[in-house]
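Deliverable D4.2, example record:
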Amino acid sequence: MASWFGRRVARKFSPMFKAMYATMGDLNKAFYEKFGDEALPVITKVSGEGGSEVGESYTGNDAG
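Output generated by the structure prediction step:
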């Protein structure tokens, strides 16, 4: 795929990703406000797993 085409497609998805990350941030903040420091390991684990899934989707690996 031509790099210009990839950038053009990526720009169309940018608002969706920004909204998704803002929502995840708000959810993490609310979770932390309710449960305090006990929430941090859970937030870290879930965020890390989500990051792994995104990375696998880019590489095509299914190592999860």
